[in-house]
Write a structure and sequence with these properties.
The complex is a heterotrimer of chains A (411), B (152) and C (149). With 152 residues, chain B is an alpha+beta fold. In chain B, strand 3 and strand 4 form a beta hairpin. In chain C, strand 1, helix 1 and strand 2 form a beta-alpha-beta unit. The relative contact order of chain C is 0.19. The chains are: A alpha/beta (411), B alpha+beta (152), C alpha/beta (149). Chains B and C meet through strand 1, strand 2, strand 5, helix 4 and helix 5 of B and helix 1, helix 2, strand 3 and helix 6 of C. Strand 1 of chain B pairs antiparallel with strand 3 of chain C.
């Protein structure tokens, strides 16, 4: 298999000591980074034509290189845009180039703002998704599940398994992740029991999620794939929105994904995972504080008003403190539940959704999409109706089972 | 992170650019090889890169400069020649610094003109660059008059 | 012989003229060479490791982007060494080491704050300006020989 060639458009990584991290992440998924070649005259002309008159020469160069890619003067399989975190000038260029490439080419693109602490591990899933989109377009084009297949989503909080036959879900299994392999085995057992099939009958298996490699090896999976492409696929399948644009939002236990999807294939995406306050964990902590099960938090929040509870911080520690103070001051559990949902939604909105173009339908997936209060808070922020498909919590497993059917022998 | 052991430690590399009507980069290279005495010479599209101990590199540069002093230009380089970290073949495209050279080479004949003309002018006659001009903006009261005249 | 800071620090023209007229150009290449020739942890292409931006904290606060601080770890020591400076004010197409406008604004400010002899220029746009450009640099550098021991 030839290497996937990823064009890098950047300002600052060599001076931040992180270029090697970018190269390493690309090499880990059998891709290589390259810098589109230009002449100075082309550079000046392209920069002038693009019309975003920034001052930093390296950003001018990035703009000219993006234009060379879009106009087909330089060939690439994917694009990686990287600039310094906290640079306003670069953030404007990063966003505009991402949008420009997405709208004017079929090149998958991911953007990232780094610090000197960025490691190749942080970049790996993004690079893997980029290469998957570039390398497996034919596989990702699959819209119908065939035969008898299984998908396993080994997430950081929960493990999910789904058995599908002839484009229908016939068995599901779900449990909190403890030991990765044991949790997967139990989820599989539950799914095949419900489906009424035996393990041997299953024709192909796909794994995704945080534990995909470990579980994939354990179950001898036909397809081991990161969750960005798999979840996009699962989302548009379940939401019956396989053609045209859509936006997938997945607030997970450890990281969040916002994916701008076209015909079931991610075009641009962001992944955030630094702050627990913007994750499902925050809602788990809140439900514990309120003494309710996580499944009850959503209905509770639907009865409350978030603005009645002052939240001083998005932080999982200080934000929880605000909620505790509000309870002590007499706020109702309903209002506190609503405030917690609003806090998570607002942080995802401010920090991640700004980096993808929101196009309808907006599909929320993952376990947190079952918390109605969170979905409502996001709807209010986005000013749009959000679709939560049936089986939304099984999105990764469904996407895996669907894509795995491409590996059935004779297919 | 793996450990890094430098190659060519203790050497210097200098670029020699030639932009001359009477000398090509390969002419320059031939002259350089004649006097190289083991110093590494690499021919490039714009001239040469010379790598070695500093005094040896300077000796070669002094000799080469004398061939066409107003059309040969010299600059230090951080990397040894052909270093894979900077090489176009490895990066896919030119390293960023290349465009800066391309820009300056585009106007360097004006510097050559300056170097040629200067000795023939007396120090007093050597021109001063014009002082930066400040753009005079329209007086606000005059603008008001114009607006008023348009409205009436 | 004075140590002359160049702006852009990557300029072939300035580096050549300063050396040609008998002074020491402080070129970015010297800082890069020092890193390329020093053993340590591997961090291609420039051997600026994540320690670079931390060293840059001496010149720019932690809220300043890492690329600015990393570049300042190259330029800070050069500015401290500088005994004179020549600045080309319309150097809009200098990339890489001079690729960040925010860093360039900061080094421009810091070098001016030093109160050392300083020459402001623009790239020549015709032959006569070329003569003026070279003459101005020669006059400036000749003047330094008296001022700087």
């Amino acid at each position: 298999m030839s290497k996937v060639r990823i064009a890098q458009l950047s300002c600052g990584p060599e001076y931040s000591g992180v270029q090697k991290e970018i190269d390493t992440a690309a090499a880990a998924v059998d891709a290589e980074i390259f810098f589109p070649d230009l002449k100075l005259a082309d550079l000046r002309q392209s920069f002038d034509e693009f019309g975003l008159n920034v001052r930093s020469p390296d950003l001018k160069l990035a703009i000219a290189r993006a234009k060379a890619l879009v106009e087909g003067r330089v060939e690439a399989d994917a694009v990686f845009i990287a600039t310094c975190f906290r640079c306003a000038e670069a953030a404007i260029v990063r966003n505009e180039l991402r949008r420009y490439i997405h709208e004017n080419s079929s090149l998958p693109v991911v953007s990232y703002s780094f610090t000197e602490r960025t490691t190749s591990g942080t970049l790996l899933t993004r690079m893997e998704a980029l290469t998957t989109i570039a390398r497996r377009r034919a596989l990702l084009a699959r819209e119908v599940q065939q035969g008898l297949t299984m998908g396993i989503d080994s997430g950081s909080s929960t493990t999910k398994a789904v058995v599908m036959r002839d484009n229908k879900i016939i068995g599901t299994g779900w449990l909190p992740t403890t030991a990765v392999i044991e949790s997967a085995d139990e989820a599989i057992r539950r799914a095949i029991t419900e489906a009424g099939v035996s393990r041997d009958e299953i024709e192909a298996v796909g794994t995704t999620g945080y534990g995909r490699f470990l579980v994939g090896e354990h179950v001898k999976a036909n397809l081991i794939q990161e969750e960005l492409t798999v979840n996009s696929k699962g989302a548009v399948f379940l939401a019956d929105s396989q053609r045209g644009p859509s936006t997938v939002i997945d607030i997970g236990g450890m990281d969040n994904k916002a994916i701008s999807v076209q015909d079931g294939i991610p075009g641009t995406f962001t992944m955030g995972g630094i702050c627990a306050g913007a994750s499902g964990r925050f809602l788990e902590m809140t439900s514990k504080r309120l003494g309710v099960d996580i499944t009850e938090l959503g209905p509770l929040a639907m009865k409350g008003l978030s603005r009645k509870v002052p939240m001083n911080s998005y932080c999982i520690v200080f934000g929880t403190q605000s909620l505790v103070n509000a309870l002590a001051a007499g706020s109702s559990p309903e209002d506190v539940a609503a405030a917690a949902c609003h806090s998570v939604a607002e942080q995802v909105f401010e920090q991640q959704l700004q980096e993808v173009d929101i196009k309808e339908p907006v599909i929320m997936v993952g376990g947190t999409s079952l918390i109605q209060g969170l979905v409502r808070a996001m709807e209010e922020l986005l000013q749009t109706k959000i679709l939560v498909p049936h089986h939304a919590q099984y999105i990764g497993a469904v996407g895996s089972a669907l894509l795995a059917s491409g590996f059935i022998k004779g297919d | 992170m793996s450990t890094y052991s430098p190659r060519y430690a203790g050497t210097v590399t200098k670029y020699i650019f030639v932009e001359s009507p009477s000398m090509t980069p390969s002419d320059l290279a031939i002259r350089a090889y004649e006097i190289s005495q083991g110093v590494m010479i690499k021919e490039t599209c714009f001239g040469l890169q010379v790598t070695g101990k500093e005094d040896e590199v300077n000796r070669i540069i002094d000799s080469l400069r004398a061939l066409d002093p107003t059309h040969i230009f010299v600059k230090d380089r951080g990397f040894p020649p052909g270093d894979p970290r900077r090489c176009r073949a490895n990066l896919g495209g030119a390293r960023p610094g290349y465009f800066g050279h391309e820009f300056e080479i585009g106007l360097i004949r004006r510097i050559s003109k300056g170097l040629e003309a200067l000795p023939s002018r007396s120090p007093e006659a050597a021109p001063h660059p014009p002082a930066p001009t400040s753009v005079k903006r329209l007086d606000a009261s005059r603008l008001q008059e114009i607006i008023d005249s348009q409205e009436s | 012989m004075a140590k002359v800071f160049l702006y852009p620090t990557t300029s072939l023209i300035l580096s050549d003229l300063v050396a040609r007229f008998g002074h020491t150009p402080l070129s970015a290449a010297l800082q890069i060479r020092e890193r390329i020739q020093t053993p340590g942890l591997e961090s291609p292409p420039l051997q600026i490791t994540p320690e670079g931006p931390k060293k840059g904290l001496r010149w720019a606060a932690v809220e300043v982007p890492s690329g600015v601080r990393g570049r300042m770890s190259l330029y800070g020591p050069m500015i401290e060494d500088a005994e004179a400076a020549i600045i080309i004010n319309n150097a809009d197409y200098s990339f890489g080491c001079m690729g960040c406008a925010r860093t360039n604004e900061l080094i421009n400010f810091l070098i001016r704050k030093k109160n050392i002899p300083l020459l402001d220029l623009e790239y020549p746009s015709n032959d006569e300006e070329g003569v003026e450009f070279v003459a101005a640099i020669k006059r400036f550098l000749d003047g330094l020989s008296g001022e700087v021991a």
